């Protein structure tokens, strides 16, 4: 995160003076910015913008990185096929007519990041059965093929494509009929399809402590970034370190098992990394003095993902 904060600080020279989406997005849509790294909502606003003419806008997937965090040393190191099994070589040297060699530092690891991880809806499993069924029927209607197209194509809607048919180039006619440029839309759908189908996709952390207001890595990074103009990069880095230490302490108090090894196992699982098998000590047996309902294991819920990538 130190490296990310330093990079964002260097990019300030090319940003609007007020570093917020409310300033950057209108400037880009007005044709005053060369490029933006943004959500699909900005693309959906282009039909009513100053960059709506065919050929004015290009869209591509985010680039990867030639470095990765070595979680053993906690240092950034160059990608290699061993460290980054899904990386691809992007710079090679031709040694002979039919022989090439990948140059050092040329392996690029790409990990698409679906920011905020999409929307979900839930209904308590303890709700009456008819309430659960009605909730399911409502969200099935909301995300169904017919109704969802209206939300996805609406230039004022923040709903991005979430069904496979929304991403299918065969349905480009729906997009052009709604006022979107054909070439740009095909680039957008291609980039989104590649991201959603990547085996190396990076999801938001789903640890319990992330739901606590103001205690997530995103908040820490943004607060440190916004503090740079009033302080300096060194002070911001120190504040970031202090916030992350507090985050770890909060996480341990909110997890059912605060053992550091269990915390690491859960975090590794979220990253798709296999962690050493760890079995927590068994709970003590209670022979008397406990009545039904005194021990709560967990709260059950039915989770419905209305904006996951649905088939069809």
Provide the fold topology.
Blueprint: H1 2-11, H2 21-29, H3 40-44, E1 67-70, E2 75-78, E3 88-89, E4 92-96, E5 99-102, E6 107-108, E7 121-124, H4 129-142, H5 145-153, H6 164-167, H7 172-177, H8 182-196, H9 217-227, H10 233-254, H11 260-270, E8 301-304
Antiparallel strand pairs: 1-2, 3-6, 4-5, 7-8
Helix pairs in contact: 9-10
Could you explain the architecture of this structure?
- With 312 residues, this protein is of the alpha+beta class.
- It has a domain at 67-108.
- It is built from 11 helices and 8 strands.
- The chain has helices at residues 2-11, 21-29, 40-44, 129-142, 145-153, 164-167, 172-177, 182-196, 217-227, 233-254, 260-270; strands at 67-70, 75-78, 88-89, 92-96, 99-102, 107-108, 121-124, 301-304.
- It has a two-stranded antiparallel ribbon.
- Strand 4 (92-96) and strand 5 form a beta hairpin.
- Helix 9 (217-227) packs antiparallel against helix 10.
- It is globular, with a radius of gyration of 24 Å.
Task: Summarize, please.
This is Guanylate cyclase domain-containing protein. The chain is α+β, with helices and mostly antiparallel strands. It has eleven helices and eight strands.
User: What level of helicity do the residues show?
Assistant: 25-40%
Stretches where pLDDT falls below 50 for ≥5 residues?
275-311
Give the H and E element order. Answer: HHHEEEEEEEHHHHHHHHE
Main sheet strand line-up: 1-2
Q: Strand portion, in percent? A: 5-15%
